[in-house]
Amino acid sequence: MIHLAVGVILILGIVLAPVYVMLLGWFFGSPRDFRLALTGVGYLASITVGLWAGLGVFAALLGLVFF
Amino acid sequence: MNASAAAPISHEARVATILRPILERPSRFYMVVLAIAAGGLLWWAYAWSFQLRNGLIVTGIADWGTAGGVPWGFYVGSFIWWVGIAHGGIIVSAAVRLFNLTAFKPVARMAELLTLVALSIAALYIVIHLGRPDRVFSSVLPALPTTIRTSPLAWDVTVITLYFVLTATYLGLTLRSDLYALQNRLPKALAPVYKLLLIGYRPEDKHKLERMAWWLALAVIVLAPLFLHGGVIPWLFATMPGQPGWFGGAQGPQFLTIALSSALGSVIVMAYVFRKAYSWQEIIPDEVFAGLSRWLALFALLFLWMQLQQNLTGSVAAPSAVADLTSAKMEEPLYWLSLGLVGLALAYLAVQMIFPRYFNVERTVAAALLPVAATLLEKTLFVIEGLMHPVFRLYEGVPGHYTPSWVEISSAVGAFSILLLFFLLVSRIVPLIEVEVSEE
Predict the structure, then answer these.
(1) Which of A53, B214, B379, B413 has the fewest CB atoms within 10 Å distance of its CB?
(2) ipTM
(3) Secondary-structure percent of chain B, ordered helix, strand, coil, rounded to 5
(4) pTM of the model
(5) Count of A-B CB contacts under 8 Å
(6) Virtual CA dihedral for B229, B230, B236, B240, nearest 10 degrees?
């Protein structure tokens, strides 16, 4: 059971820990500004979506041309 | 240290110098390099299309079974190498912000951009290596919720995405205040681009955004060295008990020393290229190269130290599979060439540190190139040797061999062309040096 969950613990628990600290700093650090912190989260989300969507379009185009 | 050392220049002259690549007409040299890079990219596009039409059989990569040889080669070695290069950028920049290493401020943004493009190239290598790129969406992504529980490959996909997103966000946060401050001086033709980049920007938020960038730098400086190049990338290999050349906890620190050596070397080379191209001697003075080269010497020393650890434990009284692997590595001239290049760079940089009067920027840049080349060689050999010498003897009847094909070598031409094109184009759109920071 522990073996099955090692990746979840590793990624969500350990590797992402610095990102959790960063988000806590954005939302609760000084100077505090929830609007800007949310904008930052928006950046993270939109860049993630943009990155994968871009790769998706690229892969789909290659699929159309070659396969 | 010779004295192209910076004479103080006014803020106005400094800004004008920084904006030179954006405002001046492209030189003939620029156009020639642009044409060469575009040609290189087209050549690689042809090579990749050849692979897409005919399959991975056109590479030197075999199936490790009945065909002999190895299923991973130059593509995976290059992937590791480009992720390593990506390190230099954001770590230099984050260190500037967190530890106030003001001497390196002039190269911070260039280094961030290097991270973005190097990571993109690294990801592209995985897409190429998959054979059919649509497998990212037909098998890798749908399976991720399950595979992340046990697969280091799934961890890699997750953390590289995270690293790219954090770097792009960091760049966005720090770039916008510069663009806002300079918007009246930037080319009108690119106004829509700047408008897009400045959506939602309020100048009164500048110090809050700076603080957000600080928190982001804190996350990156832990995440990148410890969990990316000292983490998920080596764990791809270190968790495989069937490959004695890969297995074990030493891979994390070893990968990190190799990545930091290549990354610092790349930042030094890139800073020199821009300094030379735009006559930025005042903006990127000799002291920047002297400081970076000291860090490079340290990382090169650690690189060799980790190799010593592995080779010693693999040679003295090692289990037979480890001894076989170590012996094969010792007999490979390219491995010694790789160590020799790093050793040579270390020796030169050490002499320069002991006798500062011998400091010379051009020689420092030449020395910085050595670990950059050596690490590509070392990483490719690491991948191949690990697969060639497994613990089990299942495939001994079909040992095979591996040599990169012209298609694989062409990918290196394509990757460097992408790097060149990226910097040639970006340098004409955004300031490559933080104007606001340099003002302070």
Answers:
(1) A53
(2) 0.94
(3) 75, 0, 25
(4) 0.92
(5) 108
(6) 160
